[in-house]
Structures are given as C-alpha cells and as structure tokens.
Design goal:
By secondary structure, the protein is α/β, with parallel strands linked by helices. It contains nine helices and 18 strands. Helix 3 packs across helix 4 and helix 3 packs across helix 8. The chain is globular and about 55 Å long. It binds NADP nicotinamide-adenine-dinucleotide phosphate.
C-alpha cells in the first residue's frame, strides 16, 4: 500500500530519512481492526521520529503519522486515538508506562490503511470534515488536556500561550477562547501575532515581552526559549503546563526560587485519554469550533509538509488527504 515512512535517522537533516513509497499492509492483532485513512495530520512528533527521538532504529522502516480520520471495517466514520496502551492497563492510559503512540512501536497513519485496537476508535461527528477531524487526536487533544484537565482552567481565568503558530498552540488559543478564558499569545513573527488575534487571542506579544498583567496559567510547548518568560508571567499560585520543548529541554535557569516563593505549580501533560478525545469532539460539535488548517496536501506531497514544519513556516495544522 501507499505509505510515508522513516527509513533512517538524522538529527541535522531529518528529511533525508523520509520516503514516500510503498509498504506492506499492517498486521492486525486480535481485538484490533483496520481503518481506511481519509485524512491524517502532521505533528512535530513526526519530525522528532526522523531525528530518532522516541523511535528505535531496529523498528525501521516505520510508517509515520499519529493522527487519522477515516472509515472503519463496518463503514463508520471514525477518528483514531493515537495512544496505544497495554491491554492489561486499567485507568488513565496516558499514565501507562508501557504505552506508545502510533508510529513509535506500531505502524503509523500516513498510509492507505492503519491497524489499531478497536477501543481506540472514536465516532467522527458530521459537523467535522475528515481533514478537520484528523487534526484532533494529537495536537488538539494535547491542548484540551493541558487547559482543562492538567491546568484545571475555568471560564473567566487568564492564560498565556507561548509560540502562537504551532499546531498545539493554535489549538490552545482556539479552545481557550471557546471555553471563556482571557487569552494572551506570543510569537517571534509579526504575521503570526496578527493571526493569533484572528483565531481568538485577546492580545498577542513578541516572544519574551512583558505582559500587561500576570496570568493564571501558561501553556508551554516551546521549552528553553520561553521557560523563564513563562515563570515571570504567572501570578502567585499560578500554573505552567508543559507538553513539549521544541527549542530544547534545558533553560538557562530553572528559577527554583521563583517557583517556591510564588508557590507556582509546574505540571507535565502528555496527549489525552480516549474519553477526553470524545469530550473534545463533543466540545467542538457543541460550540461550532473548527481546527485551524494551515494547508491540505495530497499524501503523495507529504515531503512539502514536512519541509514547511521543519522551517517553522506553519500556522495551524498541515493535513494530508488520501
Ligand atoms: N506531550 C505531548 O503529548 C505532545 C503532543 C503534541 C506536541 N508535543 C510537542 O509540543 C511541541 C509543539 O508541537 P507542534 O506539533 O505544535 O509543533 P509545531 O507546529 O512545529 O510548533 C512549534 C512552535 O514552537 C514555536 N517555537 C519553535 N522554536 C521556537 C523558539 N526557538 N523560540 C520561540 N518559539 C519557538 C513556534 O512558534 P512561533 O513561530 O509562533 O514563534 C512554532 O510555531 C513539540 O515539541 C511537540 O513534540 C507534545
């Protein structure tokens, strides 16, 4: 079948190991099923995979892609939850130490078909296209859990979103506004700061700029480049929720004094549960909120999408259609 896969790793030139070609159909274990992929979305995770982060060399070649929306074996329109847990695990599947994401241990979604556990299927609402639905399982689910589960935010509170242009960041801005929060965003790029206002931010600022007032919460995916600004932007007792470190994991200073003296909370967040994915779908269905798609490309042109993400030339999600 047609597939986009990683053949080798390179830290400096991740696209050198990317192949657009043919792979065998995925194996379908007991209690798994096959989904015909109609659309999938690109995540920074796919670039990390090409750098050898989170993916072991002995598992190459590996079909990339965590996100998919498509048709299941019974003809239903579905989304695929990307977190693959251990069948024996009970409770929050993001806390399962044996969990993986599609494309880490099991073949991913950039293909004609993907095999997944039946329990990972979530119905697609008619209000979302396949392309829109494909944005939800990784970036949008991560944003939902950061704001409303790990961050525990309530309508009327304030939030700062760092790095406005990213897939997770645009989801954070949109979901925060739809949930009744006061939303600030930062970006290095003037055009992205303007677009942040269009998707729901009340105000946007240059990366590192002083805010007009301190916020209840900061949503971090940028990491080292924005960490100190995130801590300085919080009111006493505020919370920073972190799900990524695109610019690196080691800030110049961790500012431990600030954290204890102002009683700040630092909370990690990773993906979300299948139940939360269902709630996110209902949230979008009820509010009419739609994922922001930067561009839709035929999957055969996936390399162009990877190159745009690698260059940081993205605002919203890059979607691949079949
Ligand atoms: N833990 C999880 O479950 C989970 C899930 C999804 C994503 N993630 C992680 O979250 C991060 C974002 O993912 P994504 O898919 O949204 O990636 P993306 O679409 O490539 O977004 C990255 C954003 O980070 C900002 N950025 C990058 N380098 C920066 C720097 N040096 N200084 C300031 N801002 C910088 C940019 O914002 P501006 O250009 O606007 O400044 C860019 O738009 C990745 O590291 C990813 O691995 C984690």
């Amino acid at each position: 079948m047609f597939a986009v896969y990683a053949e080798s790793f390179s830290t400096d030139d991740p696209l050198s190991g990317l192949v657009v070609g043919e792979r065998p159909d995925p194996e379908v274990p007991d209690d798994w099923t096959t989904v015909e992929v109609k659309a999938s979305a690109l995540n920074h995770h796919d670039l990390w995979s090409l750098r050898g982060v989170g993916l072991r060399e002995e598992l190459l070649p590996m079909i990339l892609g965590c996100d998919a929306a498509g048709i299941d074996a019974d003809g239903n329109e579905v989304l695929v939850h990307a977190v693959i847990g251990d069948p024996a695990w009970r409770g929050d599947e993001t806390e399962d130490p044996r969990r993986s994401l599609l494309s880490e241990r099991f073949q991913g979604t950039f293909a004609d078909r993907v095999a997944v556990p039946r329990s990972n299927l979530v119905p697609k609402p008619a209000s979302l296209s396949f392309e829109e639905a494909a944005c939800l399982p990784t970036a949008w689910l991560t944003a939902y859990r950061m704001l409303y589960v790990q961050g525990g935010l309530k309508p009327g509170q304030s939030v700062l979103v760092q790095g406005a242009g990213g897939g997770v960041a645009t989801a954070l801005i949109t979901l925060a506004r739809a949930g009744g929060l006061q939303v600030f965003a930062t970006s290095r790029d003037e055009a992205k700061r303007a677009r942040a206002l269009e998707v729901g931010a009340h105000a946007s600022f240059e990366t590192g700029a002083r805010l007009p007032e301190r916020v209840d919460a900061v949503m971090e995916t940028v990491g080292a480049a924005t960490w100190n600004h995130s801590l300085r932007s919080l009111r006493p007792g505020g919370v920073v929720v972190i799900s990524g470190a695109t610019s690196g994991p080691n800030p110049d200073s961790t500012e431990l004094n600030r954290i204890f003296f102002l009683q700040l909370r630092v909370i990690g967040s990773t993906m979300g549960t299948s139940t939360e994915l269902g709630r996110l779908v209902s949230f979008l269905d009820a509010t009419g909120t739609k994922p922001l798609i930067d561009r839709t490309l035929p999957m055969s042109e996936a390399r162009d999408g990877f190159a745009a993400m690698h260059a940081g030339e993205v605002f919203g999600k890059i979607v691949f259609s079949r």
